[in-house]
Design goal:
mainly alpha, 21 helices
């Protein structure tokens, strides 16, 4: 990283093109560190899509659409082969009792993200939104290392003007201070919160834990719910922070999604760049909400099912997407019904209930997202609804003798051992919930310095935007000490390698 930053600004004194080429080269080396065998695949995809973009741009109107269709199909076939070929074969084997051997294909890291990024470029080219066709900038746009592995999904129109702006090629102390701060906040989220929640989520999802009782099931699910959020939002923060060192702003990807009051708002706050991509390039082309109620609901379900499949080749991801499609349909129906009966949806009490209901619905869907097998997911869902009863560790029960009659009335039983893990699980959940629900997010902390694209124009008003004003970052000694402290603690806590969860998608 220091070599990359130093080389970028040193070369910019002689040539902006050379500086951009250096950053693209460093990004390719970064990608090749995972597995250099897949560099030719990445570069071939880039050259093909750049060539297709030129063909679309210069061709006559009847042929432009044909080139676009051909290019999109080619991209989807490539993605489908690497990501879904084995899934298709396994499904055929299951349905027909055949014994077709799977291909055991290794999924190239980041292929979903750089494929969607380039499809967006092709569509924008077809619609006349692309104004610049310098290959070195396009190469950097796709390979740009802060976003290459797990997003955010970039738009050509957002990034290319920045790469052409001479200001990014001049070192800025302000950009460096803001970038390092955002990066360190993300690092702390990942190492100090997400990674510490992981073992308690794994206890439920990875280990044999048949018939989990209500508190054990909810403990594991909530641990994963907060682990996933802090893990992926940490990656996005670190990507935004690293990019800011070069003076380049990446788009905002998270805006406190668990504070959402309905599922539509959740998807405007969670993985925002993917949500925007699915809306702009799938939902709206299908007709959006302009084609009648039935077709609108069909479009919502189609988009969410495909969004589930995009995350992974498995029926659990399809169910996860289907659940969110059903949630969205129910929400849209509820909006129309509540308007007819003049339900007080703006009342404070209802707002609290709505946040809790949305959060619980999201948690239930995460069970299918995380579970390796459908049977495991259903077992956990049963546990969350109390089918397997309510149990507490006997170590806790021995301290609740005064409440024994009341506990027996509730049907709570006790099991041997597990007290330490139980207390640790719920302690970490309580801490993560406190931060997620009641503290400002990274963008709010950095709000005075426009940390990411589109943040200032966000239509979502966060309940913590005006809360805890003293947590708004300023370039001061006090802040430098605190950021330094959490960074040192984070680095000292790096005692085991933990991949980011979205690397698998």
């Amino acid at each position: 990283m220091p070599i990359t930053v130093a080389g970028f600004f040193w070369l910019s004194r002689y040539s902006y093109t050379l500086s951009a080429g250096w950053l693209a080269f460093a990004s390719i080396v970064f990608y090749g560190y995972w597995d250099y065998h897949y560099i030719p695949l990445l570069l071939s995809s880039i050259c093909f899509n750049f060539w297709m973009g030129l063909k679309i741009a210069i061709s006559d109107k009847p042929f432009r659409k044909l080139w676009l269709i051909f290019a999109i199909i080619s991209n989807l076939v490539l993605l489908g082969y690497f990501k879904y070929a084995d899934f298709f074969i396994s499904t055929v084997n299951y349905i027909s009792s055949a014994n077709i051997e799977t291909l055991s294909i290794i999924l190239p890291i980041g292929i979903s993200f750089y494929t969607f990024t380039q499809i967006a470029f092709l569509v924008d080219t077809y619609e006349g939104k692309v104004k610049e066709y310098r290959f070195i900038h396009y190469l950097l746009f796709v390979t740009y290392f802060p976003h290459l592995i797990a997003g955010p999904v970039l738009h050509h129109k957002e990034m290319m003007p920045q790469f052409a702006d001479s200001r990014i090629y001049r070192f800025s102390q302000s950009n460096f201070a803001v970038g390092i701060t955002i990066f360190c906040i993300g690092l702390a989220k990942k190492v100090l919160i997400a990674d510490n929640l992981a073992p308690y989520a794994n206890n439920l999802f990875n280990e044999a834990n048949a018939s989990p009782s209500l508190l054990i099931a909810w403990g594991g699910v909530l641990a994963y719910t907060f682990q996933l959020y802090f893990d992926f939002s940490a990656y996005s923060d670190m990507a935004i922070g690293l990019s800011r060192l070069f003076g380049v702003n990446l788009p905002l990807n998270f805006n406190s999604p668990y504070k959402s009051r309905n599922i539509s708002e959740f998807w405007r706050r969670w993985h925002m760049t993917l949500s925007s991509f699915l809306r702009d390039y799938l939902y709206i082309p299908l007709g959006g909400n302009r084609v009648g109620l039935f077709k609108q609901y069909r479009n919502l379900m189609t988009v969410m099912l495909l969004g589930g499949l995009w995350h992974g080749a498995g029926w659990s991801f399809v169910i996860w997407g289907g659940l969110h499609g059903a949630y969205l349909i129910i929400h849209h129906g509820w909006v129309k019904f509540s308007q007819k009966i003049q339900f007080p949806v703006t009342a404070m009490l209802w707002q609290i209930v709505a946040i809790g209901l949305t959060f619980m619905s999201v948690c239930i869907a995460w069970v299918f997202f995380r579970s390796a097998e459908l049977e495991d997911a259903l077992e956990i869902i049963y546990g969350m609804f109390g089918v397997f009863g309510i149990e507490l560790p006997d170590a806790i029960g021995s301290r609740l003798t005064i409440l024994a009659p009341f506990i027996q009335e509730l049907g709570i039983t006790f099991y041997l051992g597990g007290g330490k893990i139980f207390i640790e699980t719920w302690s970490w959940i309580a801490l993560a919930a406190l931060i997620a629900f009641f503290f400002p997010n990274t963008q709010e902390i950095m709000q005075n310095f426009k940390p990411a694209l589109d943040f200032q124009n966000s239509k979502i008003k966060s309940p913590t935007r005006n809360l805890l004003g003293y947590l708004v970052w300023q370039p001061s000694r006090w802040w430098s000490v605190w950021i330094g402290v959490i960074t040192v603690i984070s680095l000292l806590s790096l005692n085991r390698p933990n991949d980011f969860l979205y690397f698998q998608f």
